[in-house]
Amino acid sequence: MRVIGKSVPRKEGREKVTGRARYVDDLSFPGMLHGVTVRSPAARGRIRAIHFEGGLPWHEFTVVTAKDIPGKNCIALLLEDQPCLAAEFVNHPEEAIVLLAHHDKYLLEEARRCVRIEIEPLRGVFSIEDSMARKEIIWGQDNIFKSFDVEKGDVDRAWSGAEFVVEGVYETGAQEQLYIEPQGMIAQVNEAEGVTVWGSLQCPHYVHKALMILFGLPRERIRVVQTETGGGFGGKEEYPSMIAAHAALLARKSGRPVKIIYDRAEDMVATTKRHPSRTRHATAVTRDGKLLAMDIDFTVDGGAYETLSPVVLSRGTIHAAGPYDCANVRIRSRAVATNAPPHGAFRGFGAPQSVFALERHLDRVAEIVGITPQELRRRNFIREGQTLAVGQVVKEKVDMNGLMERAFELSGYHAKRKLFAQTNSDSSARGGIKRGIGFASFLHGAGFTGSGEEYLASEVAMEATADGKVHILAGSTEMGQGTNTIFAQIAAEALRLDCEQVRIVQPDTAYVPNSGPTVASRTAMIVGKLVETAAAGLLQLLRERGLLRDGYSAADFSRACCLYIGKHGALKSFVKYDHPRDLHWDDQKYSGDAYGAYAWAVYVAQVSVDTRTAEVRVHDFVAVQEVGKVINPVLAAGQIEGGVAQGIGFALYENVVWQEGRMVNAQMTNYVMPTSVDLPAIRVYFEEIPCGRGPAGAKGIGELPLDGTAPAIANAIAHATGVDVRRIPITAESLLEMLEAVHA
Amino acid sequence: MRAFLPAYEMETPRDLAAALDCLASAPGVWQAFAGGTDLMVLLEAGKLPQKKFLNIWNLEELRGIFVSAEYVTLGALTTYAEVQRHEILAREFPLLCRAAAETGSVATQNRGTLGGNIANASPAADSPPALIVYDAEIEMVSMSGARFLPYASFHTGYKQMNLQAGELIRAIRLPRVRAGRKQYFRKVGTRRAQAISKICFAGVARVEAARIADVRIALGSVSPAVLRAVRAEELLRGQRLGSVDLRGAQDALGAEIAPIDDMRSTARYRRSVARNLLAEFVETLVG
Amino acid sequence: MPEPARKIRVSCVVNGAAASFEAYPMARLLDVLREELKLTGTKEGCGEGECGACSIELDGQLVNSCLVPALQAEGTRIRTIEGLAIGDNLHALQQAFITHGGAQCGICTPGMILAAVNLLAQHPQPDGAQIREGLSGNLCRCTGYMKIFESVVAAVRQTESRA
Questions:
Q1: What is the pLDDT of residues A182-225, one digit of tens each?
Q2: Nearest-CA distance B191 → chain A (Å)
């Protein structure tokens, strides 16, 4: 292949390194006002009154409350339960109540402080336990957004045949996406065009739909444009609809463009985070370490409104039993409500939570059975032809053992496992430092689950210009992961052009079709395939007219386009997703072919633990994965490296401190992500088994690294110290207590 | 930006005398503003009640590092970057250089000043423990003249200090020591760079004939202000290196610190780690 | 309502050219650069001096512009990311960041590149530890820093081979 498989430089790289890339806060419109949000001080309660104090010139301000919403007061997603602005009740701290706009951003900030919301408090629920105990009913009939019950085989009968039954409870905390560019939107509302918003976002069509319902306007009267986006990681999947709605309401009332940019504290405290989780495992194993039955109970905390919790729960549920062959599996799961700001999408989307539990649990199972963790995996790794927990027969080539052995070789796992065990017992000579090495083995499905892609019915358009340039029109967004570049490569490959001749049109709902959201590790495989198909379609139009011969040059292509357009007016192709006939999914039973393709991986982490301070350092990290065809090696490696870094943060550093539903450490000083000296060399290796579903054989990789990183580290810490890690983040404080207990 | 910015004033006095005059004429009205790495953070968080600031960044009288036979004297405006670059400081006061290197980031080290750090009086600051164990003295100056104070007496409580209205910190003076010293510094933060300390330990000892002839120990983040661990020092002073009563010293230390639970860490963690760092310090004396 | 202070006029040199602007004395230099001088390449990531996205060169030193009040910019020489390339010729670091994947979403990139420029001024041939240390005040959420290091190493090699 000419272009695919090459590390073509990032399409918008030059703009980014010169500071010319335009993020939403870099834009300014004539007559623009600034907007801010006044938020609930209480976690739950009834709004009694709103007072405008401080002797400010309130007549100069645009003030918006729920009463000003022309359509339905909701941010529509799966349900319409989340208000855009709280009207009578608030259900989480920092819930938006009043919006203000003014041209002076300093006065505006003063005004925000001078709006006093009087709330009659109601008792709130702040933990999974309290929510399930129904101390208060805060959502629906029973605080449960969604539940699943997956049954494979006969779990109950399998217990009797088991030599060992191992149980355990595992927990993961919330994690803040911490994109370096905070959330922001600019909105403009006028008679001529309706509602237009520009901003930092992943899914223009999600925002579009939400605004249609909020304003009660038809499709053509809403327009959403994505500006250069400084990181998303899921944090800008659903939340932007909220901030867009706020900016648009202020724009409508004031008649002026309005810009809302969150500062870091507001972004942290008010927007979505990774769902906290609690998983209970009970596993029946034979004496030889063969898995007989897995009984998994998985719960995620969804916060105050449903938002995307059912889908997070779904992915977490489906990934809960991992890449293993087990005849009897039960997964009962639920997403519950608490009075915290709704939790939301964050890279991995439920799987990092359930995979942490599984991979930590399996190391414990191995220990109890008396075999090594790798032997337990080896005896149970799934193979082609076998069935995953939700009943999907694995139809791709998979060699988990091979991946594991390669990861072990690259990391020196076997030798270090022995060496560290020896030297750790001699720790006083080494200044209290204990070392460990551990791994995790896992998979991650690409694309929307089950019938999801069919439901999305994604579309891509492609257009050629008279001088032979090709424009790709897709709703998929670039946020650093490389969408623009790989789309250009895919099209260039299919059309035998250079990437410079391909242009990605800025995602703008007025011009690009709905290619589905930029989430779920679907962009390369699902949408990239549509790009490939659209390119083939364009080529076919030219060939049919006899305008292109085999082995044509770029100049030939330009000439052909010119001729075609001269005669027909335009050269366009348009593709809609066609769900593969061989994928079958039963939504009722929640079983069948969950994903069209999986990436498979084994990650190895080497750590040291300073027993005096319980500080953990990751010294080496090896990430081996099979991902189908790698379209752009530098970009792909960059995705894994960045994902592993976020996973290290998830495991060791990133701790949200809660006080009655409110994040109290909402500053970058106190919510800590790894710096360049906190991270080791992250060594990334790809294996490629081309998958027919993706362009040139590509599968999805964006979320994969978040699944296996934290459990590999937890297992390494367990190896180093003997501490039975059960929850992340593994703070030094909790680890020191556990070390002292082990010592005693 | 959570502050009403237009309410804030800043002026640049033409020299130190003018600055002191301003401070004397309106006590409590003006506050000195140096590199801004603490004050600007407070401003942006909406937590800066003081509204009038004197920009002292350019006052030459407060700059410079001067070396005499007896002292190294650092002007209050000495930045962390300047501390790290100074050869004599690196050689004779390495703990201060370590603290400087572990404070904030390169960018904050270029603007953060020793005087500003001292006046900000955070119990979690990294330089104060090093200054304590070096027996630093603070020179303060006002319209009435100058005075020196041992730094160990400077902080009197949480954000309370022995600095009168109208006074500015002019310099920090470190007595040079002839004999060799064993030196130890360890900051335990939330991560390895750009971290606020959970606990910080500085220790200096003079070892003679295998005995701890003299010792200084200071800790940050375990009490309302930087703490000189006099009880632990007392216990260690005079002990033979082969048979140090470590447990006794650790208990003494435990009795004089008062760590709390906060957003970054817990009292329990700080207590345990303080003991462990003391053990590590004593180990380095033997080695 | 508090009485607003009067704005001041500040004169300095920005990216080699004389610049003059009006601002509240304690307005952040970051905001002044972006709003008065329209140099939007310098970014705000945190407003608390933690992320380094607002890094600039002030009198030859790397500083966080969100922590510098406008008044203190008087008489200084400032360089922002916009002042790095010479016309269309990118600095070796800028080119390396494109080629070697040092920039993903790009929001940390201007500050990161200036920090790298500053690093190379102190250590023209930095080892791995020095690179990590020199960039530890600039947070990147996308890359895990690996390709940023590779970009710096590549830029050093490129500069050596040209010299």
A1: 999 999 999 999 999 999 999 999 999 999 999 999 999 999 99
A2: 7
pLDDT tier at B179 (50, 70, 90 boundaries)? Answer: confident
Q: What is the DSSP string of B153-190?
A: GTEEETTEES--TT-EEEEEEEE--SS--EEEEEEEES
Interface contact flag, A110 B4, Cβ < 8 Å: yes
Rounded to an integer, what is the distance from CA B211 to the centroid of its chain?
Answer: 28
Enumerate the residues of chain A whose CB falls inside 8 A of the CB of residue C36.
none
Identify the CATH class of B60-175: alpha beta
DSSP 3-state assignment of A642? helix
Q: Which residue has the tokens 């539940």?
A: A147
Separation between Cα atoms, residue A687 and residue A689, nearest integer Å: 7
Name residue A701's beta-bridge partners: none
Cis ω before A204 (30° cut-off from 0): no
Cβ distance A676 to B193 less than 8 Å, yes or no, reads yes
Q: Is A415 on the interface with B (CB under 8 A)?
A: no
Neighbours of A27 (CB within 10 A): 17
CB contact set of A370 (below 8 Å; sequence gap of 6+): none
| CA-based nearest residue to A474, from A521, A526, A432 | A526
Per the structure block, which two tokens stand in for A217? 């306007």
The minimal CB distance from A109 to the residues B1, B190, B191 is found for B1
Residues A395 and A596: their CA atoms lie apart, in Å, by 9
Identity of the residue in C3, C25, C69 whose CB atom sits nearest the CB atom of B40: C69
Asked if B111 lies within 8 A of C27 by C-beta distance, the reply is no
Which of C46, C81, C138 faces A19 most closely, judged by CB atoms? Answer: C81
The CA distance from B134 to B124, in Å, is 18
Contact A480 C104 (CB under 8 A): yes
- The answer to whether domain B182-286 has CATH 3.40.50.1220 is no
Cross-chain CB nearest to A675 (options B44, B188, B191): B191
Asked if B181 is an interface residue toward chain A (Cβ–Cβ < 8 A), one would say no
Query: Which helix (H) or strand (E) segment is A102 a member of?
Result: strand A96-102
- What are the angstrom distances between the C-alpha of A581 and each of A459, A522, A533, A593? 18, 18, 17, 11
Q: How far is B130 from chain A (nearest CA, A)?
A: 20
- Which CATH class for the C92-162 domain? mainly alpha
CATH of domain A24-122+183-261: 3.90.1170.50
Burial of B26 by CB count in 10 Å (0-12 exposed, 13-18 middle, 19+ buried)?
exposed
Touching check for A612 and chain B: CB below 8 Å? Answer: yes
All residues of chain A having their beta carbon less than 8 Å from the beta carbon of residue B265 are 732-733
Q: Which CATH class is domain A452-576?
A: alpha beta
pLDDT tens per residue across span A322-340: 999 999 999 999 999 999 9
List, in sequence order, the alpha helices (H) in chain B. 16-25, 39-44, 80-85, 87-92, 94-101, 106-111, 114-120, 127-133, 230-236, 246-256, 267-286
| pTM, to two decimals | 0.98
* Chains near C (3 or more Cβ pairs under 8 Å): A, B
Summarised one tens digit per residue, pLDDT across range B95-124 is 999 999 999 999 999 999 999 999 999 999
How many angstroms separate the CA atoms of A270 and A185, rounded?
Answer: 15
The CATH label, of 1.10.357.10, 3.40.309.10, 3.20.20.100, 3.30.365.10, for the domain at A277-449+589-743 is 3.30.365.10
Which CATH fold topology does C8-83 show? Ubiquitin-like (UB roll) (3.10.20)
User: Which CATH topology does B7-55 take?
Assistant: 3.30.43
Question: Token pair 């009970």 is at which residue?
Answer: A282
The amino acid that residue C50 corresponds to is E
The mean pLDDT value for B134-163 works out to 96
